[in-house]
Design brief:
7 strands, about 375 residues, seven-stranded mixed sheet, about 55% helix, Glycerol-3-phosphate (1)-acyltransferase
């Protein structure tokens, strides 16, 4: 018998799929999900429908796609995308994107694939978000790869190596593309930067040939831009506290962030699939000493993501308010500025602390991308 060493972290496959979907169908929380997705419809019909599904592809196409469409319809003006042609090459890729929302970043990327008749990718998700068996069943029935995080250095090394090996195997065998965020945790301050630790994790399963090993992963940077930053006030509050002490998450905070990100108005959203990293890009990185190689590689990915970031008027208005300037005033109307000022004031109105400081932090989250893009 061949031992499946990836069993604890990989998505459900084969004869694991139908039983997981039946467990989802029998869970009491499914009634709440049904009420949101299909208001006015019979809950038991939805339960029977889920139970009748037999595989992950059906679950994604008939349930998850409807869920994401519903979220976009209810909380966004428009979802646009560009650069998808770069992925229509019959190859599997490692998609590395900036990270602004816990759930939606990867979900929107998958929805775009589905709408264009392309195979969805597997998605690397931190195990801190998989808080109970029901959530794990939904996640692993939606092609989730579990990223095991641990404070134990030995366990962290082992789990990182396993993750690295799994991602490399999936891509090089042409079984599936994989999505992973450029950093551990969402960007809080509006500045998107790739953590070198991510690239070193990917290198753990390498043969020692830097250029060839990363070329085989076929890295495609992806840039995600929200007109209204998901969880903007929650991020500002965390940054405010972090200026004074070490920030410690409260129980249930991740779930609250997931729900806030889903329900909050997001305005326009744009996703840009960027130019894949070329062998020449990697050869240029390989010329540096070991640690500098990862720094150079991160800089290339960051440059692609930042160049693809779509600047909205919310970013420009925030900059002008923050700097008491009219630098970008030709891009927006006085009504748009007033509306965003009222939005900002409303979001921070209940804050118990230095209002002027939280306002500065809140506006910086929106204005910071301008310092990189324009």
């Amino acid at each position: 018998m061949v031992i499946d060493k990836f069993k604890e972290i990989r998505p459900y496959i084969g004869d694991e799929e139908a039983p997981a979907l039946k467990r989802i169908a029998s869970h009491p929380l499914l009634k709440n999900i049904s009420t949101y997705l299909f208001p006015g419809k019979d809950h038991e019909e939805f339960r029977a429908f889920i139970s009748s599904l037999t595989c992950v592809d059906e679950f994604q196409g008939k349930v998850m796609l409807a869920a994401i469409k519903k979220i976009i319809k209810d909380t966004a003006k428009d979802l646009s995308y560009s650069g998808l042609d770069k992925l229509k090459d019959d190859k599997k890729h490692l998609l590395i994107s900036n990270h602004r929302d816990i759930l939606l970043d990867s979900a929107l990327i998958q929805m775009i694939f589905f709408l264009n008749n392309m195979q969805t990718s597997e998605m690397a998700v931190g195990d801190n978000l998989v808080t109970d068996p029901f959530i794990e069943d939904i996640a692993r029935s939606n092609k989730m790869i579990k990223v095991i995080r641990s404070s134990n250095p030995r366990k962290l090394y082992t789990s990182s190596l396993l993750l690295s090996e799994f991602i490399r195997e999936r891509i090089t065998s042409q079984a599936s593309s994989v999505w992973i965020a450029q950093r551990n945790g969402r960007t809080k301050d509006g500045v998107d930067m790739t953590e070198q630790g991510l690239l070193k994790m990917l290198d753990m399963s390498s043969s020692g040939d830097f250029t060839n090993d990363f070329d085989l992963l076929s890295i495609v940077p992806v840039s995600i831009s929200y007109e209204y930053e998901p969880c903007d006030f929650l991020k500002a509050k965390e940054l405010y506290i972090s200026r004074r002490t070490r920030y410690v998450k409260s129980p249930g905070e991740d779930l609250n962030s997931i729900l806030t990100g889903i329900m909050q108005f997001k305005g326009n959203i744009h996703i840009d699939y960027r130019e894949p990293l070329s062998r020449t890009d990697l050869e240029n990185c390989a010329q540096f000493a070991k640690n500098e190689r990862f720094k150079a590689l991160a800089e290339i990915i960051d440059k692609r993501i930042n160049e693809g970031y779509h600047i909205w008027n919310t970013n420009r208005i925030a900059y002008d308010i923050l700097h008491s300037s009219n630098k970008f005033s030709t891009h927006y109307t006085s009504e748009e500025r007033k509306s965003f000022e009222e939005y900002c004031d409303f979001k921070i109105s209940s804050f118990e602390g230095d209002i002027s400081e939280i306002r500065e932090i809140f506006l910086s989250i929106y204005s910071n991308p301008l310092g990189i893009v324009e």
